[in-house]
Design a protein that fits this description.
The chain is α/β, with parallel strands linked by helices. 41% of the residues lie in helices and 13% in strands. It has a single domain, classed as 3-Layer(aba) Sandwich (Glycerol-3-phosphate (1)-acyltransferase). The chain is globular and about 55 Å long.
Length: 335
């Protein structure tokens, strides 16, 4: 999601910084996913090999880049979509109006991810569209025709590349959902749990760059889709591990059980997104990124403050589906 800051067009240095980010990322982009030796396509057999090659291409320097004017043209459609979920945003004052920051959120509701769009709009309202801002995105989504170029133009960058570090170094904002598909596809019974799946890359990124970490907690979004199972076994049988995919979610819809291939539409739950106070680790220094104990401790700190906030929202904003339906009906009759 392309995000960006207040006073858009107000300072030419902001736009110049955005150009510097793009140039730096072009020079520093990886040509293969993180943890890969550049032979991912060789390891992936059969029909998966072309997809892996497309993923590797998305880490190359000639990928489509973020386009602020294009973002402006998409805002109305995004706001219509998020209005379906009666969003409420809290704590926006904790988001700095300018400068680099790493936002860390809990991921929800599969690919519908309405809270992600609510967060993106809140950041745009706060910082405008000219201020450089990016979101780390599932590699596979960037390979899908039409979808991939769209995501790139609104500020998506591959999660397994060096683009995020380059962007933060140049003063941009980066939004990360460490839990990825593992958290976004967690069972409905675990909807009120923060689950990063043991991933700590966001901590190393923050430590290396010295930027503040701003936790962003969403409540109600994962109530919009009833996930029965992550479907890890199915994912293994399909060989999706070659694309770093560990899930093939099974959901409950109006017609019974459904898979990710035929997902039910999301329910109109009321979503609350809350920005929390920044966490600063700059005093630890960039070398701390190589200390596993420090990294684990920092990751636990972020997950802990987010879980406390989510527990509080669960009580304060109980029954998100009932509230969402009530809001939709009220708006319908008010018109």
């Amino acid at each position: 999601m392309a995000l960006v800051g207040p006073g858009a067009g107000r300072d030419n240095r902001t736009m110049e910084a955005g150009n510097d980010v793009a140039n730096d990322m072009t020079q520093r982009s990886l040509t293969s996913p993180a943890g890969s030796d550049g032979r991912g396509a060789d390891r992936a057999k059969g029909p998966l090999a072309p997809l892996v090659r497309r993923i590797e291409h998305e880490h190359s320097a000639d990928a489509v880049r973020r386009d602020p004017e294009y973002i402006e043209r998409q805002l109305q459609a995004v706001r219509r979509y998020t209005n379906y979920f009666s969003p409420e945003v809290r704590g926006i004052e904790y988001l700095p109006a300018e400068g680099p920051a790493l936002l860390v959120g809990n991921h929800n509701a599969l690919f519908y991810m309405p809270d992600t769009w609510v967060t993106a709009l809140a950041i745009i309202d706060r910082r405008g569209t000219e201020h450089p801002a990016y979101t780390l995105t599932y590699d596979l989504l960037l390979t899908v025709p039409v979808v991939g170029p769209f995501l790139r133009r609104i500020g998506a960058i591959p999660a397994g590349s060096h683009e995020a570090e380059a962007a933060l170094t140049q003063g941009a904002l980066v939004l990360d959902y460490p839990g990825g598909d593992w958290e976004a596809c967690r069972p409905w019974l675990d909807r009120n749990s923060i689950d990063f799946g043991g991933r700590t890359g966001f901590v190393r990124l923050a430590l290396r760059t010295g930027v503040p970490v701003i936790p962003v907690v969403a409540h109600g979004s994962h109530d919009s889709v009833i996930v029965v199972s992550r479907g890890e076994g199915i994912a293994r049988l399909l060989g999706l591990g070659a694309m770093r995919i560990k899930v093939f979610p099974i959901m409950l819809g109006p017609l019974g059980l459904a898979t990710v291939l035929t997902p039910p539409p999301p329910l109109p739950t009321s979503i609350t997104v809350e920005f929390l106070p920044p966490i600063h680790w700059s005093s630890l220094g960039p070398d701390a990124a190589d200390d596993p104990e420090v990294v684990d401790r920092c990751a636990a700190e972020v997950a802990g403050v987010m879980q406390v906030a989510l527990d509080r929202l669960r009580v304060e904003r109980a029954h998100p589906l009932r509230r969402g339906i009530t809001n939709l009906v009220s708006r319908a009759f008010s018109h």
